[in-house]
Design a protein that fits this description.
With 459 residues, this protein is an alpha/beta fold. The chain folds into three domains: 5-38; 72-276, Rossmann fold (3-Layer(aba) Sandwich); 282-458, Ribosomal Protein S5, domain 2. The chain is built from 13 helices and 23 strands. It has a nine-stranded mixed beta sheet, with helices on both faces. Strands 17-18-16-15-19-22-23 form a seven-stranded mixed beta sheet. The protein has a three-stranded antiparallel beta sheet with strand order 2-1-3, with no helix packed on it. Helix 9 crosses helix 10 and helix 10 packs across helix 13. The structure holds thymidine-5'-diphosphate (TYD) and magnesium ion. Thymidine-5'-diphosphate is lined by residues 98, 100-106, 136, 139-140, 268, 270-272.
């Protein structure tokens, strides 16, 4: 008999190597390669029959294929449902990933209330005792009509309980605590996570059970271990934000049943997470008056416009190379904008430190935020206040030109709704608006380049 073959898998990034290495060549982490013994392929077990059946299929004509009809269940939280693509799909396996303490268990316990109103839900926790779960559930005022709690980490017993209770929804909190008997490594290792996930997927697909898995991510923000399970599950939702920030945001990193554009916004309070359906209002509350360096911006998060404020601060530097920090904005993009301002407008920004901050822990990863970033930097540098009722959006090119952005109309309507009076936008986006009428007679100022935009500030 041949000795079983081993592969070494990086628990950070999923890199595979034939031999052990101290440092992962892919993500440069130390001591993250774990041995996984590759077993001889065995005859498919009962649960996996469906997966292996795929290999026996024959090709079918594309035209004869029918669109699947997904049966979705609303979770009672619209913000979450939207990210899922309209609710939890029957028989799907969803991974909810986030740092410890972000609110994963809280959110899942909250949706249990609606889900268990008419159908059986099994909440499996490998992290907390029944008492602790009950305590949290009471605080969240969960009725839990058909809610079952199982505190267990052994996959064999978990699967047996699923068989005997017959739930329609299963929550596994967290996948890192689960272990399968036949697998040699400890819970939380790549092989354990992979095997546990595979077994849960098999039961989900064969019985039409919807499974929600909790996965902890490490400090670096990658899903510890579960990088390997990302491609196995149907959807990966990432829960972001931290304790100091107002918002907790859920975004879909992968979704087989919906778009990955949407985000869900929540706020953590006394009674768990509450939905924030108008995040812009919250973000704009408490704006400073008459302070230079502030500019409101409108970005798109999926199909929703979101307005927040950018704050810039420039101060004479005492360093040989000036400091630059960016919170919620791409660092290299900040460098780029600073370079454009220096070269095209002749502002001597290389003599100052520049700090950039986006309010509310929002990350602006849309180039449409460029113009407002540039304006807030100019405002701070020249100490000119930008009118509080002014909002700007537009992408900046290297020549200082202002490029068109998507859906200007939606952005303007949101600005209008929140009482803004002036919108600075790219000329090309303005031209696209044609005859669109806005209710309040909001003033639109089209700009072709940074030069035009600066002139507005000077007025
Ligand atoms: P938790 O859901 O346990 O986080 P995770 O499962 O992602 O590790 O809890 C998140 C934090 O939220 C916890 O530190 C306590 C706090 N919290 C509230 O502020 N209000 C509440 O109603 C609850 C249940 C928790
Ligand atoms: Mg938890």
């Amino acid at each position: 008999m041949k000795a079983p073959k081993s592969v070494y898998i990086c628990s950070e990034c999923g890199y595979q190597s034939a031999r052990w290495l101290g440092k992962c060549p892919s993500c440069s982490s130390w001591n993250t390669l774990e041995e996984q013994v590759q077993e001889e392929p065995v005859a498919p077990q009962k649960g996996r029959a469906r997966i292996s059946a795929v290999t026996e299929s024959t090709a079918v004509a594309y035209k004869s294929l029918e669109l699947p009809e997904y049966i979705r269940s609303a979770t009672g939280m619209e913000e979450l449902d939207r990210v899922l693509g309209g609710g939890i799909v029957e028989g799907s396996v969803v991974l909810l990933a986030g740092e410890p303490g972000i609110g994963k268990s809280t959110l899942l316990m909250q949706i249990c209330d609606v889900l268990s109103a008419r159908r059986k839900v099994l909440y499996i926790s490998g992290e907390e005792s029944g008492g602790q779960l009950k305590y949290r559930a009471q605080r969240l005022e969960i009725e839990g009509e058909n809610l079952y709690i199982l505190t267990e980490t052994a996959m064999d017993r978990i699967l047996a309980q699923i068989e005997s209770i017959g739930p329609e929804f299963v929550i596994v909190d967290s996948i890192q605590t689960m272990y399968c008997k036949g697998v040699a490594s400890s819970a939380g290792s790549v092989s354990q996570i992979k095997e546990s996930t595979m077994r849960l997927i098999a039961i989900a697909k064969s019985r039409g059970i919807s499974v929600l898995l909790v996965g902890h991510v490490n400090k670096e923000g990658s899903i510890a271990g579960p990088k390997v399970m990302e491609h196995m599950v149907d959807a990966v939702l990432s829960f972001e934000g931290d304790r100091q920030q107002i918002f907790r945001i859920i975004r879909a990193v992968k979704n087989r049943y919906g778009s990955t554009n949407e985000i869900g916004v929540f706020e953590m309070g006394e009674k768990g997470l509450s939905e924030v359906s108008n995040p812009s209002e919250l973000l704009l509350s408490g704006r400073p008056e008459d302070a230079s360096g502030n500019c409101a911006v409108c970005i798109m998060e999926g199909t929703r416009p979101l307005i927040t404020e950018i704050q810039a601060l420039t101060a004479d530097t005492s360093f040989a190379s000036p400091r630059r920090t960016a919170n919620g904005f791409d660092y290299s993009r900040l460098y780029l904008i600073l370079a454009v301002l220096e070269k095209r407008l002749g502002l001597h920004l290389s003599t100052v430190d520049a700090y950039l901050n986006v309010i509310g822990g929002i990350t602006l990863d849309e180039p449409a935020a460029d113009l407002a970033v540039a304006l807030s930097l100019i405002s701070s540098f020249k100490d000119i206040t930008i009118d509080r009722s002014l909002i700007a959006f537009g992408e900046l090119g290297l020549s200082g030109e202002c490029r068109a952005v998507s859906t200007p109309e939606l952005r303007i309507r949101e600005a209008e709704r929140l009482g803004f009076e002036t919108v600075v936008l790219p000329k090309r986006s303005y031209d696209k608006l044609m005859q669109t009428k806005f209710k309040t007679g909001i003033r639109l100022i089209p700009v072709k380049s940074l030069f035009d935009a600066v002139r507005i500030l000077a007025k």
